[in-house]
Amino acid sequence: MIPWQCRGLPLGVVEDQSFQLAETEIEAGDVIVLYTDGIDESMNPRNELYGLDRFKESLFTWAGSGVPAMEWNELLLKDLETFREGEPRSDDITLITLEYDPA
């Protein structure tokens, strides 16, 4: 396990929020996906949100199909563009996918 020593607030969070420090064990092949709300809050011309459920469904589909994690970002961004149907983005999009490989 990698020990993390972090202090301060996460970026963009107001000071009155409370957070708990947590630890988890990751194993070879585990994938961690970090993203900003510009993804799940993306909208199409009918004002429908891409949404967290659709986002998670895509990730679980790729995880179960053998698609390498290094391809997930590209697949997600293509799906997001298709969903938006040309609607301009209203927020920034950040997406980081990490796969633990102890080798």
Structure characterization notes:
The protein has helices at residues 37-40, 52-65, 72-84, and strands spanning 31-35, 95-99. The longest helix is centred in the middle third of the chain and has 14 residues, at 52-65. The protein is built from 3 helices and 2 strands, in the order E-H-H-H-E. The mean pLDDT is 86. A two-stranded antiparallel sheet has the order 1-2. The protein has a domain at 31-99. With 103 residues, it is α+β, with helices and mostly antiparallel strands.
Mean pLDDT: 86
Question: What's the β-strand tally?
Answer: 2
Q: Please write the string of helix (H) and strand (E) elements.
A: EHHHE
Termini separation comes to 14 Å
Output the structural class. alpha+beta
- Indicate the low-confidence ranges by residue numbers: none
Helix and strand layout, with pairings?
Blueprint: E1 31-35, H1 37-40, H2 52-65, H3 72-84, E2 95-99
Antiparallel strand pairs: 1-2
Summarize the structure.
The chain is α+β, with helices and mostly antiparallel strands.
Based on the model shown, name its key terms.
single chain; 103 residues; alpha+beta; two-stranded antiparallel ribbon; 3 helices; 30% helix; 10% strand
